C-alpha cells in the first residue's frame, strides 16, 4: 500500500485541540547499562512550542534520552523538568506526554478510531466526545476515511499518522517522536516529515524528535542537539550548526566536511593545498604550525591544470551533483561537488591534475587530533 | 511427490481414525450380532455419571482459569521486565512433562496426607477443602494447573513474541494506562488466540487425565469411565470415553471459532 492522500489539516480540528506547550529542561542526566555509559551528564533546554531534534549516530544515547523524558526508562542521576517541575520519578502514565514510536505501535485489535480514542477513554472522556475527537484528529492527519480500518489494513505511513493522532488526542504538554519515519519508504517519509512539522507549528506543541538522519533534523527543527557518546556536543539552530559547528564531530556529522592538513601562520592565515586563506579567529586559535583544516565541499572549486597540486582519484555520481575525490601532495584526500552533467564534471575524470581553490570564507582550523572548534571571539 | 504426500496423509489419518472407529463400533455392539445405542443409553443410568462429568468439567474450567491467571501476568512480566529469566522459567514450566504422574501422586499424598508434612503441621489447611466434600479435588486442581504449565507457557510465550509486546505496552503506558489496564486492555485482547489455545490444551488435558486422578482416588469422569467399564459393561466404558472425546471436541471447536473471529467485537467493545 502507498500513501496517496495529501496533508490537509482541518482548521476545525486544530481549533478543538487545547495544547499547552510545556518547557522542558534536562539537567545532568546520566544513565549507564552495566559498563556502558549511555548518557553522560546531558543538559538540554527545550523552549515551549519548539521542535528540537536529537541527532546522532546509533548508540549515542538519543533514544535513551527520549525514553527517560517519556518515563519509559529512568536516569541514574539528573533531573527532567517540565515547566520547572521535576518529573524524573513520575510514572509514564502520569507525565502528560504523547509519543510516537519507531516501531509500529498501534493496538492491532482496535480500529484507527479506537486507537486514537484509547488515551481519552483512560481519561474518562464520554464515548460520544472521544469518538468525535478521534474523528477530528484522523481528519487532521488526512485519514478520516480510514477510521474503521484496523492497523493491518493500513500502510506504514498511515499507521504512523494514526499513531501521531493518538499521541495528540490526549493534548500532551510535550510530543515525543522516536524516529517515527525510519521504517517508511523515501516518498512517504518526506511527505510525513513535512506534515509533522506543519502540525507542530500550527499546534505550537513542544516537540522532541529523535533521528539519525541529519537532513531530516536540519529540515524540520527549530534547534538540533547533536549527541555523541552520551553527551550533547552542540545544540543550536540548523543554520548555526552547519556554519559554526562546535566540534569536529558535529562538523563531520552534520553535512559533509573535509579534514586536510594545513600550515597555520602567525598572521591568522592558513596555507592549505596551495591556497592561503584567513582562518576563523577565536580565543582558542592554535599556535602557528601544523593544523587540521575543516572545509565544506561546496566551498571548494576544482580547476583542471596540467601542473595542478592534486590528482583526481575517483568520482561518485549523486544525482544533481557528482562528488570528485582528489589526492593532495601529502597523500591526503579532499572531495568537492560539481554539477552532474556539467562540462567540468565531464573533464574531472580520474588521473586529471587539478588545482584546489577555496572561497573567501575564513576556514575553520583545529589542532591535529583536537575535537573542539573555538568560535568564541569570532563575530 | 503428490502420491507420497497423500500416502503419508492417509496413513496418518488411519492412525487416528481406526482406533476411534473401532471404539465407536465396539460401543454400538448389541448382545446379538447387530448394533444399537443400548450401551450409550445405559451409560446415563450407571451411578456417578453426572457427578463424574460435572467434576471433570469443573476441574477443566478451574484449571483453565487458574493457569491463565497465573501465567498471563508471569509471561508478560518475563517478556517486558525479566527477559533473562525466560529460559529458567521455561525449564521449570516444562518439568511436569518429565515427572511421572506416579511420582506426583506419591508426593501429594506424602505431603498433604494426614501424616504428611503439610497435613501434620497445618491441620487448618484442610478446613476449606472439606467444604467441597471431596477433599482431594482442590489439590488435584492445583496439580492439574502444574500439569498444564508446559502447554500454557509455550503457547503464551510464542504469542507474546509475535505481538511486539514491549512497544504496545510502552504505547499504552505513555497514553496513561496503569499496569493492570495495560494487561487487560492491550496484552490480553492481542493474545486472544494464544490464550484460547492454552485454555483448550489445558482443558482437554484435564478432561482426559486418568493416572493422577486414579492414584489419588479422585471421582473424575475418566475414573468413573474405567470403573463403569470394569464393573458394569466394557461397552459403557468405551461409550463414555467417546462421549468425553465428543465433549472435548465441541469445546475445542467453540473456542477455536471464538479465537478465529476477527475483528473481535468483544475486544472492540472492551475498548469503548
Written account of the structure:
The complex is a heterodimer of chains A (379) and B (272). By secondary structure, chain A is α+β, with helices and mostly antiparallel strands. In chain A, 25% of the residues lie in helices and 32% in strands. Chain A contains ten helices and 20 strands. Chain A has a six-stranded mixed sheet, sandwiched between helices. In chain A, helix 3 crosses helix 4, helix 3 runs parallel beside helix 5 and helix 4 crosses helix 5. The termini of chain A are far apart. Chain B is mostly helical and 272 residues long. Chain B has a domain of 174 residues: MetI-like (MetI-like fold). Helices cover 79% and strands 0% of the residues of chain B. The C terminus of chain B is likely disordered. At the A-B interface, strand 6, helix 3 and helix 5 of A face helix 9, helix 10 and helix 15 of B.
| Rg from Cα of chain B | 22 Å
Mean pLDDT of chain A: 88
Write the element-wise H/E pattern of chain A from the N-terminal end onward. HEEEHEEEHHHEHEHEEHHEEEEEEEEHEE
Q: List low-pLDDT spans of chain B.
A: 127-133, 263-272
Going by helix content, strand content and strand pairing, the class of chain A is alpha+beta
Shape of chain A: elongated
Strand content range of chain B = under 5%
> Poorly predicted ranges of chain A (pLDDT <50, ≥5 residues)?
1-12
Largest β sheet strand count, sense and barrel closure of chain A: 6 strands, mixed
Q: How far apart lie the N and C ends of chain A?
A: 52 Å
- Assembly annotation: heterodimer
Largest sheet of chain B: none
Looking at the overall shape, the CATH architecture of the domain at 39-98 and 147-260 in chain B is Orthogonal Bundle
Total count of strands of chain A: 20
Helix content of chain B: over 70%
Q: CATH top level of the domain at 39-98 and 147-260 in chain B?
A: Mainly Alpha
